[in-house]
């Protein structure tokens, strides 16, 4: 028998598109909720990013739509709106990272949902929030990255660099899922649902908050230094004889151990290096010594010596190497799922464990409209009625 999960018995209707909204719903599914993904009739546009083969099998879609059933629906006409209302009467949560106008037209804005059932929780993630001069503008992950100051400080002088991976989207989804769980918990106390609103820019600013606080107080106007840290040292990416590693020495205890490791024990008492800020000011010297030390060793030897000294370090891996690294394998967060048209695809589990058990993905991402008949018959439609809705292009 499958062990119970925290959100068993809850139902989520997912109108999310691209990353933050769908991933929020997927995380709720990881925790046990019955999540129903609503596609456009014929399939939605976010299915095709990073295609792996088959119909609508983009790599991003597959990762953020695990543990869902899938239906198609056009809610804009009278028949589709009636189907939607019947579905909404059965759900606990609606996830929709859509503009406010679209929510109102579809009848899934906060006021409409409250009229159907005041216990429904509406979770939305927009680009810029619901206030301010940019509230109605569209935006993706990269916009949050560059507007938070992160891309400026991640590059080099005159060459800002955003991260290739979409950390703003994934962090926004995580915060939205946390907010949704909190809203469901509060509903048990108050009897009412409510609205959880997140934004990509808000997430990026929250993550960049220490950098922004430093700027606000000190006015330091930091310039980018690539991978090299500025508030501690040595902390950078260094070349070894056969690869690259990252090393981060933070705090006096780690610095003393590092100085002994690289045979510079006098530096432990050098007033220039008395704290992280001072070491950051002398990063050229300290990182230069670290670079010399790394160039004399293989990646494996350098990492073993650093680990023995208690210094945080790790190898710079390619995606191919990351899939086969022994520590990655030990974490066991990937589930190999058979995807029609794409074959075996590693789909990430929620990277948490509950009493030692990881909530594994139970269901592969749905094909277009795969569960339309199943879901609609559950809410009272006959198979003949579903067939008629399909013939009319409603589902």
Percent of residues in helices comes to: 40-55%
In angstroms, what separates the terminal alpha carbons? 34 Å
Structural class: alpha/beta
For the biggest β-sheet, the strand order reads: 3-2-1-4-5-6
Number of strands: 11
The radius of gyration computed from the alpha-carbon positions, rounded to a whole number of angstroms, is: 25 Å
Model regions low in confidence, pLDDT < 50 over at least 5 residues: none
Oligomer: single chain
Our estimate of the beta-strand percent is 5-15%
Structure description:
The chain has 395 residues and is α/β, with parallel strands linked by helices. The protein is built from 18 helices and eleven strands. The protein has helices spanning 20-30, 59-64, 78-88, 100-106, 110-116, 141-147, 150-154, 167-190, 200-207, 209-218, 252-261, 276-281, 283-295, 299-308, 319-324, 326-331, 372-378, 383-391, and strands spanning 11-14, 34-39, 68-72, 93-95, 121-126, 194-199, 235-239, 244-248, 313-315, 334-339, 343-348. The strands form three sheets. The protein has a six-stranded parallel β-sheet with strand order 3-2-1-4-5-6, sandwiched between helices. Helix 6 (141-147) packs across helix 9 (200-207) and helix 8 packs across helix 9. The model has no long low-confidence stretch (mean pLDDT 95).
Fold blueprint:
Blueprint: E1 11-14, H1 20-30, E2 34-39, H2 59-64, E3 68-72, H3 78-88, E4 93-95, H4 100-106, H5 110-116, E5 121-126, H6 141-147, H7 150-154, H8 167-190, E6 194-199, H9 200-207, H10 209-218, E7 235-239, E8 244-248, H11 252-261, H12 276-281, H13 283-295, H14 299-308, E9 313-315, H15 319-324, H16 326-331, E10 334-339, E11 343-348, H17 372-378, H18 383-391
Parallel strand pairs: 1-2, 1-4, 2-3, 4-5, 5-6
Antiparallel strand pairs: 7-8, 8-9, 10-11
Helix pairs in contact: 1-8, 6-9, 8-9
């Amino acid at each position: 028998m499958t062990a119970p999960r925290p959100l068993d018995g809850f139902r989520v209707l997912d109108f999310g598109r691209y990353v933050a909204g769908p991933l929020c719903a997927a995380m709720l599914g990881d925790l046990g909720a019955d999540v129903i993904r609503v596609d456009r009739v014929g399939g939605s546009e976010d299915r095709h990013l990073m295609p792996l083969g088959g119909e609508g099998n983009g790599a991003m879609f597959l990762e953020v739509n695990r543990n869902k059933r899938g239906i198609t629906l056009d809610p804009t006409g009278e028949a589709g709106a009636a189907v939607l209302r019947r579905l909404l009467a059965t759900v606990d949560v609606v996830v929709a990272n859509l503009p406010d106008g679209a929510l109102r037209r579809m009848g899934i804005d906060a006021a409409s949902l409250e009229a159907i059932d005041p216990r429904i929780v509406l979770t939305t993630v927009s680009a810029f929030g619901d206030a301010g001069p940019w509230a109605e503008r569209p935006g993706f992950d990269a916009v949050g990255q560059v507007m938070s100051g992160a891309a400026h400080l991640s590059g080099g002088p005159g060459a800002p660099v955003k991260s290739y991976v979409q950390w703003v989207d994934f962090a926004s989804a995580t915060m939205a899922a946390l907010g949704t769980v909190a809203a469901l918990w509060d509903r048990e106390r108050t009897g009412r649902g409510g609205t959880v609103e997140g934004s990509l820019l808000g997430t990026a600013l929250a993550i960049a908050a220490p950098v922004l606080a430093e700027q606000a107080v000190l006015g330091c106007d930091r310039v980018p230094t690539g991978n090299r840290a500025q508030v501690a040292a040595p902390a950078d990416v260094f070349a070894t004889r056969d690869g690259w590693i990252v090393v981060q020495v933070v705090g006096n205890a780690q610095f003393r151990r590092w100085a002994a490791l690289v045979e510079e024990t006098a530096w432990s008492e050098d007033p220039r290096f008395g704290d992280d800020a001072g070491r950051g000011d002398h990063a050229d010297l300290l990182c230069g010594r670290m670079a010399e030390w790394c160039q004399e060793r293989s990646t494996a030897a350098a990492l073993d010596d650093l680990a023995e000294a208690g210094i945080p370090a790790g190898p710079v891996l390619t995606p191919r190497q990351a899939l086969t690294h022994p520590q990655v394998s030990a974490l066991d967060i990937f589930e190999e799922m058979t995807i029609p048209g794409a074959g075996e695809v590693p789909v990430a589990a929620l990277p948490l464990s509950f009493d030692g058990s990881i909530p594994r993905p139970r269901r592969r991402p749905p094909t277009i409209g795969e569960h339309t008949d199943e879901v609609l018959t559950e809410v009272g439609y006959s198979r003949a009625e579903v067939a008629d809705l399909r013939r009319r292009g409603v589902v």
